[in-house]
Amino acid sequence: MWVEDWTPRAACKSASPDQLFVRGAEQNKAKQVCQGCPVRTECLAEALDNQIEWGVWGGMTERERRALLRRRPNASWRQVLETARTQSPGEQAPAAAPVRAVRSA
After folding, report:
1. FRET pair for 76, CA 20 to 30 Å: which of 33, 57, 95, 100?
2. Is the residue at 58 inside a domain?
């Protein structure tokens, strides 16, 4: 089930924005905040569909998101990620799973 108002459920809701908008090796620490987040997929779709250039969103850095956007520039990422989630019923699709599906598409 897709969560429209996902921000109140985000694992990072109480984190300082300074934790998520970092550079270099600090991004790996920021990505750990996303591990196990119940709305990670919605967050990633938001960043991809709106081409948000900065910060860690849905467990992906800006570089990782740019790579996806180059491969599928006209994709509706919400639709891609929501479809990937429904293909594995009962599971919250991790951000990495749709990436593999996108590569094979």
Report:
1. 33
2. yes
Per-residue pLDDT at 100: 41
The count of C-alpha atoms lying within 13 angstroms of the C-alpha of 15, restricted to the half-sphere facing its C-beta, is 20
pTM of the full predicted structure? 0.78
Confidence of residue 34 (pLDDT cuts 50, 70, 90): very high
Burial of 75 (C-beta count, 10 Å sphere; 0-12/13-18/19+): middle
Q: Residue 105 and residue 103: Cα distance in Å, rounded?
A: 6
Flag whether 5 is in a domain. Answer: no
Expressed as residue numbers, the domain containing 94 is 13-104
Number of domains composing the chain: 1
In whole angstroms, give the CA distance from residue 77 to residue 86.
Answer: 14
Q: Note the pLDDT of residue 94.
A: 46
Segment (H or E) for 64:
helix 62-71
Average pLDDT over the chain, rounded to an integer: 84
